[in-house]
Specification:
Blueprint (H helix, E strand, L loop, with lengths): L7 E8 L56 E6 L5 E6 L14 H9 L2 E7 L9 E20 L4 E22 L4 E8 L6 E10 L4 E8 L4 E10 L5 E10 L4 E10 L5 E10 L5 E10 L7 E10 L5 E10 L6 E10 L2 H8 L5 H17 L5 H19 L1
Parallel strand pairs: 4-5, 5-6, 6-7, 6-8, 7-9, 8-10, 9-11, 10-12, 11-13, 12-14, 13-15, 14-16, 15-17
Antiparallel strand pairs: 1-17, 2-5, 3-4
């Protein structure tokens, strides 16, 4: 039941060695990157990277008219041995993972006053997670966070967003050789919040990166996870789940840059939508450059539409510049709530609302289990059930 999508709009593809590469209309090999806001024109909504985003709901984050008014509280709790610093803009470590790739990301990088830097030392294996609580108290804020993991270290980081804010942010993950980092980013905002962020991971040789992005709240949430490989043998697993309510816009735009040989990536995002004008956008861009021989990559997006009036845009893109790969493919499917599954459960004595809850919980269960933290998993499953109960009350 967890991965059963009813018939709907489906696109699937798989490319193996010897087959001709697919070329997306928007080849990301030429994507521009800069720390300077002025290098990016003000978007008008006709650009490929902005065509799904309702710019008028960004509250000036995209055109420079949003003036910082504060109201953001960031608290970091870390196990013994982890270094937590608040640094100013001159710190030479900042920006190591990669440059901003759109105007809002450049605005965020140019506007923050202090950055949070969390350093996990070489060879450390953390028994407890690093927790970063980001709470909005109203107003406009710009934020920058860097997580650096030393060689052969292992850590879990939870970034939890709550409250109300108009936030543009940059988050960097710098993984040393042989290290392993799991990041859980939760967007549990009030319904009035706006959150736009670029997450950039630089993965060292033989290092492993796992990201779990969970998005529930907010008026508009637009996240841009990016993966760059710093050496052979790197692995990236990007998981995500989102529950989009009526009137909400939730957008996840992923880009994995396979520019290094013998690296692997796997992407799986799932979303459920309910309510009029609920809008979810998922863009999955994977680029395999000519030098990236031995690449193995796959991306998947599944969407479950629970009510009329909701809209999904799901666009997987795969660009391959070398035939010397292990495999590459993608799949995208969007379907309505499966009445047959519902009937099957109700025929066995399960009430309608409980049956509906079980179907949706099963849809998300596999991704929730990727978190690996029982308390957080239960909280998120409870949040899903709250959303479902609200829709039938």
């Amino acid at each position: 039941m967890a991965d059963n999508i009813p018939a709907g709009s489906t696109t699937e593809g798989a490319i193996q060695v010897g087959q001709p590469p697919q070329q997306p209309a928007d080849a990301r090999v030429s994507a521009f990157a800069s720390y300077n806001v002025a290098d990016f024109p003000v978007p008008h909504g006709r650009e490929e990277e902005w065509r799904f985003t309702p710019l008028e709901r960004l509250r000036g984050l995209h055109d420079g008219s949003a003036e910082m008014t504060g109201g953001l509280r960031v608290e970091v709790t870390a196990p013994e041995g982890v270094t937590v610093e608040t640094v100013d803009r001159s710190d030479a470590r900042l920006g190591r993972a990669g440059k901003p790739v759109d105007r809002v990301a450049a605005q965020a990088y140019s506007s923050f006053e202090k950055a949070s830097v969390v350093t996990i030392p070489k060879d450390a294996v953390l028994a407890d997670p690093v927790r970063i609580a980001v709470h909005g108290e109203g107003g406009v804020a710009y934020e920058h966070v860097q997580i650096e993991v030393g060689a052969f270290a292992e850590a879990v980081v939870v970034i939890d967003h709550t409250g109300d804010a108009t936030l543009a942010a940059g988050v960097e993950y710098v993984l040393g050789d042989g290290s392993k980092l799991t990041v859980v980013s939760v967007q549990d905002w009030d319904d009035t919040a706006v959150h736009v962020a670029q997450h950039t991971a630089l993965i060292g040789r033989d290092a492993g990166f796992k990201s779990v992005v969970v998005t529930f709240g907010g008026d508009l949430v637009r996240l841009h996870p990016r993966v760059i490989y710093g050496g052979p043998g790197g692995e990236a697993e990007l998981y995500g789940l989102y529950f989009t309510e009526g009137g909400q816009h939730q957008e996840h735009r992923l880009f994995i840059d396979h520019d290094t040989p013998h690296c692997r990536s796997n992407v799986a995002y799932k979303g459920a939508l309910q309510g009029r004008d609920a809008h979810a956008v998922w863009i999955g861009d994977v680029l395999i450059r000519a030098a990236a021989e031995g690449t193995d990559t796959y991306e998947l997006n599944r969407n479950l539409v629970l009510t009329d009036g909701a809209r999904v845009d799901s666009v997987p893109n795969l660009e391959i510049e070398t035939g010397e790969i292990i495999g590459a493919g993608h799949a995208s499917a969007t379907g309505r709530f499966d009445d047959e599954q519902l009937f099957y459960l109700m025929a066995r004595g399960i009430p309608h609302d409980e049956a509906r809850r079980l179907v949706v919980r099963g849809f998300f269960a596999e991704l929730v289990q990727q978190i690996g933290m029982a308390d957080l998993e239960e909280r998120l499953l409870g949040k899903i059930e709250e959303e479902l109960e609200a829709s039938v009350s």
